[in-house]
Amino acid sequence: MINKQMSTADVLQTQQWLEEIIIGLNFCPFAKKEFVNNTIHYQLCEAKKITLALEELTKQFEKLVHEPNVETTLLIFNEGFKSFENYLDLLDHANDLLIALGYEGVFQLASFHPDYYFEGQPFNAASNYTNRSPLPTIHLIREASMEKVLSVYKNPENIPDNNIVLAEKKGTHYFQTILQRIAKSHS
Questions:
Q1: What are the Cα distances from residue 54, in Å, to 71, 96, 161?
Q2: How far is 84 from 60, CA to CA, in rounded Å?
Q3: Number of domains in the chain
């Protein structure tokens, strides 16, 4: 059974993280427009198994195909995939599904997780917070929209490196404090 109060809190937590960290620090220079224009769809998924999660992902691809007014989707896993390794398995299957459904070049997936860490980086490195979120999340992005934005953005290839530099400047404690405050305010 779905706990509506918890579900709302999960979405609000994700929205606040998006606003304060992703947009607030300009980690994603094109997120603000979609956030302000309310063209981001937030979809909770309570699946704990990959097959059920992929069924929901398929529905979200179809939603984007049939609803052009929805620019992007954040598929939020509020029950399953708490383990980063399990989440990475899901992400591999999700990318395979994207290709199998013929959406390669149409959509791309970005990944966020509370325990996200880049290979070769210490777990507590501040750079990991460029992809750390309150809940495991897969971001479905329209490739055409991203290409359009990147074509007018100066030096888009520098975005990841710039984000890492900023994250390291802010430090791990900065991000931990924000994420703890967000979690506490929606519990």
A1: 20, 10, 31
A2: 22
A3: 1
Cα dist from 46 to 15, 50, 86, 141, whole Å: 18, 11, 15, 21
Which H/E stretch holds residue 45? Answer: strand 40-45
- What gap in Å lies between CA 16 and CA 66, rounded to an integer? 27
User: Residue 159 sits in which domain range?
Assistant: 4-185
In 3D, which of 121, 137, 110, 99 has the Cα closest to residue 15? 137
What pairs with residue 139 in β-bridges?
74, 110
Q: What is the amino acid identity at position 4?
A: K
pTM higher than 0.90: yes
Per residue in 81-119, pLDDT tens?
999 999 999 999 999 999 999 999 999 999 999 999 999
